[in-house]
Design brief:
Elements lengths: L7 H13 L1 H4 L8 E4 L10 E6 L2 E5 L17 E5 L5 E3 L10 E4 L5 E4 L17 E4 L10 E3 L11 E4 L5 E4 L17 E5 L7 E2 L2 H4 L8 E4 L8 E6 L2 E6 L4 E5 L15 E4 L11 E5 L14 E6 L8 E5 L9 E4 L5 E4 L2 E4 L13 E4 L4 E3 L9 E3 L11 E5 L5 E5 L20 E4 L11 E5 L10 E4 L3 E7 L7 E7 L2 E3 L2 E3 L2 E13 L2 E7 L10 E9 L2 E2 L4 E6 L1
Parallel strand pairs: 32-41
Antiparallel strand pairs: 1-30, 2-3, 2-35, 3-4, 4-5, 6-7, 7-8, 8-9, 10-11, 11-12, 12-13, 14-15, 15-16, 16-17, 18-19, 19-20, 20-21, 22-23, 23-26, 24-25, 26-27, 28-29, 29-30, 31-33, 33-38, 34-37, 34-39, 35-36, 37-38, 39-40, 39-41
The chain binds 2-acetamido-2-deoxy-beta-D-glucopyranose (NAG) (4 copies) and copper (II) ion (CU).
Keywords: Signal
Pfam family, one: Glyoxal_oxid_N
Organism: Dentiscutata erythropus
Length: 555
Amino acid sequence: MKPSRFSIPTVSILFLLTVLFPNVSSAPKKKSSNYKILKENSGIAAMHIVVTSPTKIIIIDKVQNNPIFLKDGSPVSSLEYDLTDGSKRFLPLHSNTFCSSGGFLGNGTLVSTGGAEPVPDDKFKSGFTSLRFIDPCQDGKCEWSENLNGMSSHRWYSTSTTLSDGRLIILGGSIKSTSVNSEATNNPTYEFFPRDDPKSIPFPFLVETLPFNLYPMVHLMPGPKNQTLLFVFANKDGMIFDWNKNKIVKRLPSLKGSSRSYPLTGTSVMLPLRPENNYKPQILICGGNEKMDPKNGAENSCGKIDLSDLDKADWELDNFGGLPRVMPDCVILADGKTLFLNGAGNGTAGYSSSNNKHLKADNPVLTPVLYDDQKPLGKRFKKLDPSTIPRLYHSVATLIPDGRVFIAGSSPQATVVLKGVKFPTEYRIELFSPPYLSLNQARATIKSVAGSSKINQGPIEVNYDNPVEVSVDISDNKPKFTAALVHYGFITHSTHMSQRYVVCIVQNVTSKDNGYTMNVVMPPNGNIIAPGPGYLYILNKGVPGESAVHLHLKL
Ligand SMILES: *[C@@H]1O[C@H](CO)[C@@H](O)[C@H](O)[C@H]1NC(C)=O
Ligand SMILES: *[C@@H]1O[C@H](CO)[C@@H](O)[C@H](O)[C@H]1NC(C)=O
Ligand SMILES: *[C@@H]1O[C@H](CO)[C@@H](O)[C@H](O)[C@H]1NC(C)=O
Ligand SMILES: *[C@@H]1O[C@H](CO)[C@@H](O)[C@H](O)[C@H]1NC(C)=O
Ligand SMILES: [Cu+2]
């Protein structure tokens, strides 16, 4: 076993320095968290992002005047960003991805769903019914393939969610682009992919929740293997829906406060699922706004609902960390705390109008808040150190395998505008280091998983409900291991589609050579976490290892 990183001599030297040089000790306190701006920017506006391998993120914009072009002269609207060196690989597309959605199928194929009007001059076709497929790769060879008529109806601002059977459900949206939905533009239906007879199935809930029902909040409900339930929410209302029987199982009480859906955009998250409380389903919805007024202060509340007993389920209101916010992003961190970041203190989502004279949102909220669902009401939120970059409409954020958070985007104008406006199109990328990376706790390095030492050279296949042997190296002779399986999701417009965090049981820890071996039990079934890609974090005393491992949960 290697010695602990903090040996006694280090501590005594620090003490001596403090005595000899008192000013040194009163030097600025070590920051508990921090943002780092990367040298290489995103190249295109980061409207949608999705982690596709341990070191790669696919960024999708719409067709617009980004300053990079494909060989045929058309603007790049999708690329693969390499986290190791910031290099970009352009991914040609032929349909407009403007405000689309997406998710992974259980077999690992990523699907981008829907989009908007054709852009004739740049030779992009309509994306309203498009399905775009890519099998994520690490060799720089995979590309999108498109089916322009893959869906049975137009979907702009729809939500896609991976189901327990490995298919996608694509729900709602509008039939054309619009600043606010209406009866004339609404698409109150859903459909599945794949499906033998593609068709749009009526979903009246999206009529009832007009006009604020775009990018509906959809979460797969944890439960036994044969359960077929979703939590669906729009505007101020939610319900439990059986996607197999096409039936509303339970209507939930309305959530007090503002509307939570586009353009009064809030965000929603299925809180971490833990075996010790039988994967208790809890949804947290935060932020939004009451009125479509750029000056109106954003919503300062969150609602949490425990869905383990549907007859008793009701919202518990909380204060949104003292920072009213519209367009927040919610990222479940590697330790199971949830980070809320990005967004504005005033206004709504949407493009500024009249040549950028009229902003839709102002007063960017630069301070992220950390939410701990394990703490009592009133003590769950904590403010962290602020960023310097406003992230308004079309901003994104996701956890990455090294435990940091990748943050990009903000394009509040209808086209790319780099100067002369209060909030220009933002190409800078930030990496945020959560407080757990400042604890100086020894971090595990995963050496092998399920007998394979080919870590992060491609997904390692694992099965539900099975123990998986994991070996780690760590400089700590009294480690305390926990584990979590994370699906980062498809992220756009404050909607973290299919994001999931599941605590895994760790058994049979034994010390071996330079490290430890343990069994990590995979989640019981596809309703706890859908099949497809997942990242396994091994934590030591709450601090994630150097990198999570890319797994593939088999159907
Ligand atoms: C996954 O399933 C989809 C739909 O059936 C199919 O198009 C795709 O090729 C499959 N991907 C893999 C990697 O098998
Ligand atoms: C699901 O499985 C459980 C236990 O195996 C059974 O009790 C229940 O009736 C099943 N439900 C459905 C809808 O098939
Ligand atoms: C934001 O909203 C607050 C609260 O409603 C208001 O006092 C303030 O003037 C607004 N600020 C801007 C920049 O619109
Ligand atoms: C591993 O741990 C589990 C749960 O504590 C126990 O039931 C099982 O017997 C252990 N297996 C081995 C090989 O020690
Ligand atoms: Cu949009």
